[in-house]
Amino acid sequence: MNKTMNVALLAFTCFFFAGLSSAGIEPKNDTALTQLVEKLSKIQTFSGTFVQYSVDQKGARIQESRGELKADRSGLFYWHTTEPLEQTVVSNGTEVTVYDPDLEQATIQAVGQQAQTTPAILFSGDTASIGENFHVEIKTQVGQSVQYALKPVSKESLFDRLVVRFEGDNLQELRITDALGQESTMSFIQTQINLTFPANTFTINLPKGTDIIRDIPTK
Description:
The chain contains three helices and twelve strands. The chain is mainly beta. The chain has one domain (8-193): Clam (outer membrane lipoprotein receptor (LolB), chain A). Strands 7-8-9-10-11-1-2-3-4-5-6-12 form a twelve-stranded mixed beta sheet. 34% of the residues are buried.
């Protein structure tokens, strides 16, 4: 994993936050949007382990990582990868902290406006606002398995397309394609929804001596 928030993670975490601008949605997408919002509205908290991998335009796998994700619809998330490089990303809804233990360095950033057009709204914020920022279509549907394709309305989005796969009401996979055609897939191995997390779940305690970089604009 890169020593910054990679595209898939940045897209995923930014999609956590509401306050979305009004843009409308094409009528032909109403059924898909309604179904997606109904499924997501059942998820108040989400916890799971995952395998994330990226492929280039030729389909060659160029990066793989494994880790754990926890999210709360109030705008909180915890992301920890263990392989091949350890990294922890935690958000308290206002700030995002990226900690790289091998560098003994942490970067703290404010949750910005770009957070409003990315995949984190799947687990946090107002799911009813998804249609204001994304065109939603049903990509495939076979039995209980259904894939939704989300295309950002904004040309300034961090990604070109997001595909979300459910098995019944269980989220199984996120697949993000960037503007250059690189695809990043997050496959969940074990998931649980609507757990009550301990109070310190979304708090990061940095080791003494950590080099802290605060990348937050001055008011």
